[in-house]
Each structure stands twice: as C-alpha cells, then as structure tokens.
Amino acid sequence: MSALSDLLTFLREKGLTVAQAAGVAGNFVVESKLNSAAYNPKEGAIGYAQWEGPRRLALQQFAASLGEKETNPDAQRRFLWHELNGSEASALAALKATTTASQAAAVFDQKYERSSGGSRALRVAVADKIAGTPWTSQFLDGLSSALPDAASEVAGTASGVAGAVGDAVDSALTSWAKPAMSIGLKILGGATAAALVIVGAVHTVKQ
After folding, report:
1. Which residue has the higher pLDDT, 128 or 78?
2. Domain range holding 173?
3. Angle (nearest 5°) at CA 37 between 25 and 192
4. Is 201 among the domain residues?
C-alpha cells in the first residue's frame, strides 16, 4: 500500500470521516510530499508534518518507545494521533467539527500545522481531490507517487506547478475515471499552485 492509502486507512479507522481524513492528507502532501523521511536541515524539521523543535523531540521519544526511528511511517501516524489526543486536542476537536474536505484542510493547517497560511489554498485543493475521488488502490497509489514528482520537477513556476499537479491527478485517474472528472481535476489554479511546498522550504509545524 502507498503512504497515502496507509494514512487515509489509519485515520478512517480512528473514526474520522472521509472529508476529515482527506483534509489531513492534503496538508501532509503539501508539507512533505508524504515522505516520512522528508527533512529540512535549515529548520531541523522532519516527517509528514515537518515536526520541529520540542514537537520533533516528542516524536523521537514516542518513536523510541515503540522501538522505532522517528522516520518510521507507522510511528509518525501514531504520533499524530497521540498529539491529537493530547497536546493538540483542540485541533482534533476543530477537525471533527468540519463537514467538508475544504474545511478540514483549512482547520488542520490553522490549528495543527500552524503554518504561515501561504499554501492553505493548495492544501484545500489537494484535499478536495482526494475526498472527491473513489479511494481505489490504483488511484491512491498513483496519486501518492505522482504528486511528489510533479512538485519537484516544476517548483519554479506557478503555471508549471498547476499543470503538473493536475497531470499527476489526471494520470492517477486515467484507467477508470470519466473524461469530465479527469478534465475538471486538472484545474487547480496558477496562483493557488504557486504555494506548493518543496520539502520543508516554507513552513513546518509550529510549537
């Protein structure tokens, strides 16, 4: 299974709705390209959420208690839930109050990631695509692998990012989606896509 399908399955098993799980996933796609080993040396941030400072130390300690390294995907998923039921309980409460992927992505960014907000529209856009598409293993695996490549290849221009991310979603849908859905998913908007983050380049979770 892919990092995306593993995350979505984990969150659904914890009781989150499809929309709420997609909101979290949309944030992590932008934060780290869903790479549990993603590292920003400038800020010392690591993982799916780009944990830094005391929160990264807490992740390290939590992972160690499981006999794992901080970059272990399962340890990071479990640490996410640990935070949401502890120090970040207010973020979980706000997340559970949402009813759409757009709301969930925005709330999770504001309450849990606490980013600058500069890429919030893109987080919302990615979450909407994830929530609005049947979660077949083919789609999830394709999106999980294609989005990071698209982001890395065209990070320099807004229009390039918009087109490449749209193409990544398009590719994941190719073998089973209706043409109208495929075309619609390509429209992310240049200004929105300009905020796409290459691993840790703009923001990380804040204390």
Report:
1. 78
2. 3-193
3. 40
4. no
